[in-house]
Amino acid sequence: MQHKSKLPNLETTIFSVMSTLAHKHNAINLSQGFPDFKGDQKLIDLVSDAMNAGHNHYAPMPGVFKLREAIAGKYDMLYKSSYNPENEITVTSGATEAIYSAITAFIRPNDEVIVFRPAYDCYIPSVELNGGTVTSIQLQSPEYKVNWNEVKEKISSKTKMIIINTPHNPSGTIFSKEDMLQLQELTNGTNIIVLSDEVYEHIIFDKEQHQSVCLFPDLKSRSFITASFGKTFHNTGWKTGYCCAPKALMDEFVKVHQFNVFSVNHPIQIALAEYIKSPNHYLELGSFFQHKRDLFLDLIKDSRFKFTASKGTYFQALDYSDISNENDFDLAVRLTKEKGIASIPISAFNANKLDNKVLRFCFAKTDDTLKRAADILNKI
Ligand code: PMP
Ligand code: GLN
Known about the structure:
Distance between the termini: 51 Å
Number of strands: 12
Strand content: 5-15%
Bound molecules: 4'-deoxy-4'-aminopyridoxal-5'-phosphate, glutamine
Radius of gyration: 20 Å
């Protein structure tokens, strides 16, 4: 038998590649983004309570209603923006499923999707599996600023979707209010859908405000928001997230969701519904990770790496152009094998693997891990 691959050029995700290598060489793993400390015991207890109380069968297809209500409550409180828990919020199997389902619900063969590069790695394959084509807009290190005139030029009659991500993985930059207003203006009067990946919504530093699409009424009316409890509550392996969108968009999303996963882990949803009633559990995240960012940057301030402090996410981009001419992938591999520290080469997310000599380091780690990592980085 012969089969033509639907994704002939797809490689194994860089996160698996680097984490596997880190494991093999017993390196400090600052590559794939996940904490090396335990999440809140209260939340773990709530999950086992829910299991013991018998919530071990299928959850409702769009998610446990109390959790959807609690999510709606958060948007009301933080952004004065309302999503109807009945039909505008779906609990998903991580943000990854939300992104895939939103794209699959709308992208047809030959539709164009604008993606800013570097881009989180699940966006493009999801578009291509659906026959869509990607129009990349490459942003440049270290500012990764969007030139909205360039976006205007790239929008065509075939543009069906624009994908944005703020705070941005992997660069740690954020969109300003002005960026959002520009996006709103460019999409006004079009049929373009915006997919706004806001998984790091609560991990934002230096008193900056997260600019959610839901703060901009015209943008909100054409947007999906995707979010991840894994990032927010230090349990990336639970793979639970959600998606919000106006009813007309969500109606189509749910058609894909129901036959993609049908429904999501039930006891975890019951536990999350209770846990997020206390806003402190997510409102304190910014200062928690800002402390880690500041510690990490202070520890490596005399190293030969150059950096602009991350403004959000739990990633820090480090420029090594004063240290080596090697391409970023080769260097990331060598540092893992020879120096015992793993990172992510940013070229993996760039158009044509553009190599700006930048590596991404995850600082969602204990202070002790960060100190051990800095000791290594200071000697490179
Ligand atoms: N988008 C971005 C920008 C991410 O960094 C991640 C990883 N958390 C995801 C989406 C996927 O989230 P999840 O692990 O909840 O599927
Ligand atoms: N979001 C995580 C990161 O950026 C990785 C998730 C994954 O491995 N798929 O590192």
